[in-house]
Design goal:
Elements: H1 10-14, E1 21-24, E2 39-44, H2 48-63, E3 67-68, E4 77-82, H3 87-98, H4 101-106, E5 111-116, H5 117-120, H6 124-131, E6 137-139, H7 147-155, E7 160-162, E8 170-173, E9 184-188, E10 190-191, H8 202-205, E11 210-211, H9 214-226, E12 231-235, H10 251-261, E13 266-270, H11 279-287, E14 294-296, H12 304-309, H13 316-329, E15 334-341, H14 348-361, E16 365-370, H15 388-411, E17 417-425, E18 433-437, E19 442-446, E20 455-463, E21 468-472
Bound molecules: S-adenosylmethionine and iron/sulfur cluster.
Length: 475
């Protein structure tokens, strides 16, 4: 096994001190021409945190003189930024990497890189080190700021595996970024998670919660706005807990209000945890017109016993109360959620409770998942008596219900005029423009002289399950 490879120590991770290491990134002069016109391609899996990390990797690659390749097969450096939340995503990545063996034999100078959450997972680095010789560099989520120096070593023919052994994590400011869109930005406000939901691997792969200091976040938003940016999404695994590790009592609301004061046109945030939601946040959303009336609020299950086994820290009644308060205070607000079916021991009756909750909340859409056991999490040790066929049937039933309400909610928007931030031509049909309304509804529309980044009034003419059709300029 490569001597550079070490597994993160989960106990050390848990007993980390409150004050995180804070670093500032600097690109060493010697690396600025490392790429010398060579190309790279990044395959990104998983959540927005990974999308944002890939933007950092792209910024670093550009800063080292690499160019983006048009397709994966053409790239000199092929990067896999991976997800570990469910086993299926992992198997997909291992399958793709496995299939690169022949390519590596044909073109030994091509470099293959594996990073992100999978790299942090117990056993994966060992498996890759032993069974996937085509992988030249593997690094963990805590090593992102070291990527240029790790890549420089790899380019000198060293096989490098670097997974932060203390897992202590750090907050690094000043990392470069190559945003995928000029008018929309993901802005990290915190890293890691302290919630330890029993099914979830994130606190192990991303580490304990570490908030960025507000001044850096606000600086990033201001700079983005000055460069013509329109919308920021504040990112964190549990944004409502922002600032707790900095000793802030109501850090997220304070940050939201200060972000609103920057004058940026649109603010969204992702993802929220029902347990940490405060009334002051609801007030800030109501009072600041540039905080968008759309909320992603993962509930996971509609049954109290299951929620307890998941360690979510709220009951369905508490969730409903929060939902009702929001609907009451912010009319027109839309809700999306995450739901897991087939958690260990979930009975038919308990699953019915999830359906009842989904009916009550009439979500605008939902990410729905079949529970996937993740080694090292408490739920993976729970007896799981639910057959896979039952889990799949539950998922289908739930998806039908979510689809039903999504369509109903969209139908209620027909005839209305929504403000849409244009993302440019639709990928499916270049003759149509696409974008998102303030309520985060996907709108495909026709219009003349409208470009990416414009905010336009669109009259909604037709509803589909997860999108709307409309026309701009006929208000
Ligand atoms: N931090 C976010 C939160 O709590 O809302 C979400 C993080 S996780 C990347 C996104 C979603 O994946 C979770 O909300 C959960 O529904 C789902 N998920 C996490 N672990 C899972 C597992 N072991 N099996 C199935 N779904 C899982
Ligand atoms: Fe995972 Fe729960 Fe943290 Fe979300 S809040 S990242 S589901 S542990």
């Amino acid at each position: 096994m490569n001597e550079n490879y070490r597994l993160p120590d989960q106990d050390a991770e848990r007993s980390r001190t409150a004050e995180s290491r804070r670093l500032t990134f600097e690109m060493p002069e010697a690396f600025r021409h490392l790429g010398n016109g060579k190309t790279y391609f990044i395959n990104t899996y998983g959540c927005q945190a990974n999308v944002r990390d890939s933007e950092t990797i792209a910024g670093m690659m550009d800063g080292m003189g690499f160019r983006q390749a048009a397709a994966a097969e053409e790239a000199d450096v092929l990067i896999f930024n991976t997800c570990a939340v469910r086993r299926a995503a992992e198997e997909h990545v291992l399958g793709r990497i496995g299939s690169l063996r022949t390519l590596k034999k044909q073109y030994p100078d091509k470099l293959f890189v594996l990073c992100g959450c999978m790299a942090m997972e117990k056993g994966i680095a060992e498996d890759v080190a032993a069974n996937y010789p085509q992988v030249d560099l593997l690094f963990g989520t805590h090593n992102l700021h070291q990527f240029p120096s790790l890549l420089a070593r790899t380019m000198k023919k060293e096989r490098v595996f670097e997974v932060d052994s203390e897992g202590s994590g750090c907050v690094v400011e000043g990392m470069p970024v190559e945003r995928s869109r000029p008018h929309k930005a993901f802005v990290n406000i915190m890293y890691g998670c302290d919630k330890f939901c029993t099914y979830c691997i994130v606190p192990y792969t991303r580490g304990r919660q570490r908030s960025r200091r507000p001044e850096y976040i606000l600086q990033e938003i201001r700079a983005f706005r000055e460069a013509g940016g329109k919308e920021v999404t504040l990112l964190g695994q549990n944004v409502n807990a922002y600032g707790k590790d900095l000793g802030m009592a109501d850090g997220f609301t304070e940050l939201l209000r200060r972000a609103a004061e920057t004058g940026i046109e649109r603010i969204r945030f992702y993802s929220s945890h029902p347990r940490d939601y405060s009334e002051t946040t609801i007030d800030a959303m109501r009072e600041c017109p540039n905080i968008m009336p759309a909320l992603h609020l993962p509930v996971q299950s509609g049954n109290d016993e299951i929620l307890k086994k998941m360690n979510r820290g709220y009951t369905t009644d508490q969730f409903k109360y929060l939902y009702d308060r929001m609907k009451q205070k912010i009319p027109g607000m839309t809700f999306t959620t995450d739901l897991i079916v087939g958690f260990p021991s979930e009975t038919d009756e308990q699953f019915d409770d999830t359906l009842k909750l989904a009916d009550y909340c009439r979500f605008d859409s939902a990410f729905t998942f079949v529970y996937s056991p993740r080694e090292g999490t408490p739920a993976a040790a729970m007896a799981d008596s639910v057959p896979l066929s039952v889990k799949k049937q539950r998922l289908e039933t739930l998806n039908d219900l979510i689809g039903f309400w999504a369509r109903k909610n969209n139908e209620a928007a027909v005839g209305k005029v929504l403000k849409v931030l244009c993302d440019g031509p639709s990928k499916k049909n270049a003759e149509v423009l696409t974008g998102y309304s303030e309520e985060n509804r996907l709108v495909n529309f026709k219009g003349e002289g409208i470009k990416e980044g414009d905010i336009v009034d669109v009259k909604i003419t037709e509803a589909r399950s997860f999108s709307l059709n409309g026309e701009a300029g006929i208000v």
